[in-house]
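Recap from last week: sequence in, structure out.
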Amino acid sequence: MKTYTVPAVWLLLLASACTDDSLQSAADREALVLCPSVTAGCPTRGAVTGGVLPDGYTIALSAFLSQASTGHQVGNYFTGEAFRYNGSQWKSAGGLFWPVSGRLDFLALAADETAAGFALSQQTEWNRSNVASGAVLSVPDGSCTDTELLFASAQADRLHSSAIALSFRHSQARLRFHLSAADDTPCTLVSLTVKGLYLGGALCVADPDPIDDGAFLCHWDFRGCSPRDYTLPLSLDRSVGREPLTLELLVPWQPQCDVAITYTIDDGTPAPASRTGLCSLPGNAWWYDGLEYDYHITLSRTKVEMSFNAQVEAWNSVAVESSF
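Predicted structure tokens:
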């Protein structure tokens, strides 16, 4: 099976010292700059090319200030600042600077806002207090079926960190459907529909234990949302033969859904009859964020068959046990 890797996306957060805690711009201070890069050989699904986070992505950054010596929480330093590439570096429009003292806890979200159709800063509520930390991103229904939503976190202070590394993680599962024809019977795919799927909701990114500074985790909240049948978009070439036709979809963490497939047999008749098959997935199985699920589907003259020993791997190529 082809191997995929999780994006080891690193942000180097560079900033010069400042003389006070103000966020106001000053001529004698250098603006805080993000320098995203990607470990060689670790591309994400379309999100990163050439080893860098693409220009079209936006990074929404939030920082919370704590006293370095005591860990006493001071408050939000800034929230929801958008960083974009200006042709030479990743910067915020207003310019941000280090505090004189204290530790900053960073939380970042990243997405292609143009592809997603919404602005991260407008869709995100940021929260950091002595009892909770995190962000809630409201994702419109169907906006991110082929667009990655990434998140990352880090801690740093001006005295000990000239560069801050943020390792981004996936918030979605990646589904790949590989369709091929049986018995050398060429087919044409009419539709592939995932039944009862959640395609939007609240992406909640949180520190499960702020006191111990544990790694941030994510989960999806579908309250107020309704599942629906989603038909994957098709290209002009919908031929299915010995060589598999592959369709991809990104979905939130949720229970697995059934898949309905409609196709025709290319038997030379002017209007070949269509056939529909339903592939029922186990009701107790889930699609988890950061995992890739490969399903191999065979179309024949009589039925649709899906392999239930579907290959499940983490996007960082670590094998994951699964049973179907």
